[in-house]
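Both lines are quoted verbatim for reference:

——
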Amino acid sequence: MARVSTAWTVTREPVDSPAATALWRAYYTEVSDRWYLKETGRPTAPDELERGIAEETGEGLRGPDGVLLVARLRGEPVGTAGVRRLDATTCELKRVFLLPSVRGKGGAGALMDAAEETARAFGARRLVLDTRLDLIEARKLYAKRGFAEIPAYNSGAYQEIWYGKELTGS
């Protein structure tokens, strides 16, 4: 069993801060390489990787209707979760990610707690997300946190499964 550290902090951060930018690059590289390896047997080509990283600016995670949360372990930025308001009662969870070196040490719970608290602060009664079927670890986390599969609420090349959770204490 992994030892849970009490040295976690989660704070709001601009999507274009150095820490957020580095974590976005790490996140995108991991999920892109997983997809390319599954579909083509090779990692993402460098030019394709750079194009994908640049295309997603994170604008939806800026105020007033969005927040990017950065998790730090003993002060080092190691993970993110984004929350954006979709409507008066629903927020969407985006960019949930921890560096592989810190997984299993309590950061996912800290990030998810902070994301749910942020959604409640937006007035949300429901939190939704989309993901890919091959991101099994993420899907296990969402199920463990009380998310259940829901009908699609958006569409895109990489959305394959959708989850929702009713927030208590809203």
About this structure: The chain has one domain: 8-166. The beta strands are 8-12, 66-73, 76-85, 90-98, 126-131, 148-150, 161-166.
